[in-house]
Design a protein that fits this description.
The protein is of the alpha+beta class and 734 residues long. The strands form 7 sheets. The protein has a 4-stranded antiparallel β-sheet with strand order 1-28-27-26, with no helix packed on it. Strands 2-3-4-5 form a 4-stranded antiparallel β-sheet, with no helix packed on it. Strand 18 and strand 19 form a beta hairpin. It is elongated. The chain starts with 89 loop residues before the first helix and ends in a 5-residue tail after the last helix.
Length: 734
């Protein structure tokens, strides 16, 4: 409001000269002195008096409006657009182009501008204004400092019942403000007296929250409007949507009704780019994506069911856990689901079935984080189960890069806003991993132990130097990372772009190869199915008989194999015994007259002596065995007789009755003798044999020892005990 005052004066008074005259003094007021007032005065000593010889003027002040000066830069991608046309909306720009091209002055203006542009282009071709004159000069290598991080602030939930910090959001204008959503996602751990409040904290004064937000239900997600720092939108645990204007108080300005909201907790809420800056959309585990205008939350403006079969059936929809939206791609958005599938959607599709463009499968559990690279929007990061994976929109069957499998579960992740090669991940063991795949691909560039509790949320400031991590008990740790992690390196964009293109090309080649192999396998299976259709089907009885026959054949083959192995082992042992006995017989010569044996054992030579007589009674026309074979039989019989004392060929008359053990030994002796005769083994010398030493079974020792010298005792390498132990292990014939 402008204040003005009008001064008035008579015309006759203008230009009138001043006339001075002498006049006697006139007393207007006469105040008599009061001596009592002198007591109120205090003498001042010393007294200083200043005299100003310049002209005295009255004080004058003028209040003017304060002007704020701000430097702004404009990056013109293409010509200046009108204010009512959104540059990032393809439909509006195409409509404006068509309207402009129909104008009759369009061709004349383009012709005039073309002449000027041609002159500038020719001038740039003649003189390269971007020429680098010192390109060959070597750059001084700056020593890279080691990566590090320090905690600059810690924010704790003021409530006694500790809740999880489910979501974090930085204020777009004031970088020192942080909005935190608190809730308990485990339904059984919820308490009746649990607080529903969420807070906005000022990092410079973190002892108490700056603003308290009071939602109707605990907030699972909370987001600042990137264009208006006073507005926030939140998704509640009971599926409601609410928005706040911090200038209007703690309560939400408007809340969506229950019948028009989600049926499950709202895990994702993202602001959209629009003219009014009031549009947003949300996702929940009920399988729906809803679009809202916060000026009217009574009904969503649009709905999408996340049914990958594209039938729009809600019961077959996949539950959404996270949302991603990039302003440079205004029509596309991505949804991470509980089943480990990432869904790429197009909001502006003409047909509802075309809104789900494609899917990416690669995780064994829910996708807890989904983020596009800020400098390469076609590259996006997913975090789930025990790994973080980097995908390209062009390679749909597999990720182009991924981290190793950690021992702890990964809970959240995001890209660095300033460096395209750096991303962050949090784990359930309280660790924060910072990855730089230009420096390391197998391990994190820096790992920090933030707290002992599991980390649940992560958010990086726009400057890229401050990271906030929320834990399961509601503690938010704010850390500042070193400059090496938040400063763009020289030629980093080109290196990252080359790596992404190389890995994408490799995955495309592998996809083509796998597709070819699947086609071959499908053709092979189809031919196999056709062959099986031609063969008549077997009845259950035939199948059972065939299976029983195959089973019995397998058992018989296994039994034959075991029997052959036992026979080979047995023949090898007996052959060793025979060779050792032959060598000992050559080395030890004991006179028979010096050995006295009991009457029962003395019958064995008689029995053996009868065999040649019986054989001699055979007809002379029959062929007799050579003497060498007879000698081998006799040697084998003596060896086996020494190993088994109770064995003999035929008992003599008057001898003691043959026991069952003796019968088994006789049968074994006969079989072994045949095998020894049929497969003789070459004789060999024993370098370790002792002259005058003989291996015998302990039971074969004679009872009388007065005529026989006692043999020397064998040590650990003797043959006697080993023969006994080996003989006891031989299988017996039933």
């Amino acid at each position: 409001m402008e204040i003005s005052y009008l001064y008035t004066r008579k015309r006759s008074e203008f230009g009138r000269p001043c006339c001075f005259s002498d006049q006697a003094a006139i007393v207007n007021v006469d105040i008599p002195p009061d001596p009592g007032l002198a007591d109120n005065f205090v003498p001042r000593d010393p007294v200083h008096t200043y005299v100003q010889h310049s002209t005295e003027m009255s004080e004058h002040e003028v209040n003017t409006d304060r002007v704020k000066v701000q430097s702004r830069g404009v990056n013109h991608v293409e010509g200046g657009w009108p204010k009512d046309v959104n540059l990032h909306d393809a439909d509006q720009t195409a409509r404006f182009r068509k309207k402009l091209e129909k104008d009759e002055h369009y061709i004349n203006v383009i012709t005039q501008l073309g002449t000027l542009m041609e002159h500038c282009v020719k001038q740039n071709n003649a003189i390269d204004i971007y020429e680098e004159y010192f390109e060959e000069e070597e750059m001084i290598e700056v020593e890279i400092e080691p990566p590090s991080a320090k905690t600059i602030n810690t924010i704790r939930d003021p409530n006694t019942a500790k809740r999880t910090a489910t979501h974090l959001s930085w204020c777009p204008n004031a970088s020192k403000k942080l909005a935190v959503a608190y809730s308990i996602l485990e339904f059984q751990q919820s308490k009746k007296d649990m607080s529903l409040d969420s807070y906005i904290w000022d990092l410079e004064n973190s002892s108490r929250p700056e603003i308290v937000l009071k939602p109707p239900s605990p907030l699972v997600t909370l987001e600042y409007n990137p264009k208006d720092s006073f507005m926030l939108v939140g998704g509640c645990y009971n599926g409601l949507m609410a928005y706040w204007d911090t200038r209007k108080g703690q309560l939400p300005v408007e809340v969506s009704p229950v019948e028009a909201s989600h049926r499950d907790p709202v895990y994702g809420a993202v602001w959209l780019q629009s003219k009014t800056n009031t549009d947003c959309f949300s996702a929940s585990t009920d399988g729906q994506v809803l679009w809202w205008d916060i000026r009217k939350l009574s009904m969503p403006t649009e709905k999408l069911v996340l049914d990958i079969s594209r039938k729009g059936i809600l019961k077959d929809a996949l539950g959404a856990v996270t949302l991603e939206f990039e302003s440079s791609l205004p029509t596309n958005f991505m949804v991470g689901t509980e089943q480990g599938i990432v869904i790429l959607c197009n909001r502006k599709a003409k047909i509802p079935t075309e809104k789900i463009t494609c899917t990416y499968s690669g995780h064994h559990g829910p996708v807890y984080a989904l983020s596009r690279n800020p400098m390469y929007p076609k590259i996006f990061l997913t975090v789930g189960d025990w790994t973080a994976r980097i995908w390209s929109e062009d390679a749909k069957e597999s990720a182009i890069m991924w981290t190793k499998y950690h021992l702890a579960y990964l809970t959240d992740g995001c890209w660095s806003p300033v460096r395209p090669a750096v991303f962050f991940t949090t784990r359930s063991d309280g660790m924060l991993d910072i990855w730089d795949f230009l420096f390391k691909q197998k391990d994190p560039f820096l790992s920090l132990k933030v707290c002992d509790e599991p980390l649940s949320s992560l958010r990086v400031q726009d400057s890229g130097c401050v990271v906030a991590c929320g834990s399961k008990v509601g503690t938010v740790s704010v850390m500042e990372i070193s400059s090496v992690l938040c400063t763009l390196r020289r030629n980093e964009k080109n290196l990252v772009n080359a790596m992404f293109e190389r890995e994408t090309r490799r995955e495309k080649i592998l996809e083509a190869r796998h597709r070819e192999m699947r086609l071959k396998e499908r053709a092979r299976s189809e031919s196999r199915v056709m062959e099986t259709e031609e063969v008549p089907a077997e009845s259950p009885q035939e199948k059972f008989a065939r299976a029983q026959k195959e089973f019995l054949e397998v058992i018989q083959a296994e039994l034959r194999r075991k029997a052959e192995a036992e026979m080979r082992q047995l023949h090898g042992k007996v052959r060793d015994y025979t060779e050792e006995a032959a060598l000992q017989k050559e080395d030890i010569q004991v006179p028979e007259e010096n050995i006295q044996v009991p009457e029962e054992e003395s019958q064995e030579p008689k029995e053996e002596s009868q065999e040649p007589k019986e054989e001699s009674q055979e007809p002379k026309g029959e062929s007799q065995e050579p003497k060498e074979e007879e000698g081998k039989k006799e040697d084998a019989a003596k060896v086996l007789g020494s190993l088994c004392p109770s064995s003999s060929h035929q008992p003599l008359a008057g001898a003691a009755p043959i026991t069952h053990h003796q019968e088994r030994c006789q049968s074994h002796q006969q079989g072994w003798m045949e095998s020894l005769v049929l497969s003789p083994s070459p004789s060999r010398e024993r370098p370790d044999s002792v002259p005058g030493q003989r291996d015998e079974h302990p039971s074969c020792q004679p009872s009388t020892k007065q005529h026989r010298p006692e043999p020397p005792q064998l040590g650990a390498t003797g043959r006697g005990p080993s023969q006994k132990s080996l003989f006891s292990q031989l299988p017996t014939r039933q």
